Amino acid sequence: MPGSVQNAAPLTLLPASLSRAFAHEREYPVIDNEYRNGESQRSLQATNSRKRWRLAKRLTSAQLAALRDFYDARKGPTEPFYFYDSYETSPKFSHDPTGQAVAGR
Length: 105
Fold this sequence. Notes:
Elements: H1 16-19, E1 22-27, E2 30-34, E3 40-44, E4 50-55, H2 61-73
Antiparallel strand pairs: 1-4, 2-3
């Protein structure tokens, strides 16, 4: 079908030591209208939440070099990869180094 985009097919996995350095945030985008009389009206822009991961702790120089090497090996943002969100894995805070476990990936 013209104009359709194929799904990414990741082949590599972010190491556990680096994936645990990120914190998970969830946001529900809303439109918020506030009126002069103090009332407000809100409506959802999307039915699903938007997820974001940010660095939650300071990396050592060795960890930063490992993250940079991993990123450069994936050619920056051009090659997809898997990573495990520790709160969504089963059991929680587990990491499958092979990348075969789909829960939390």
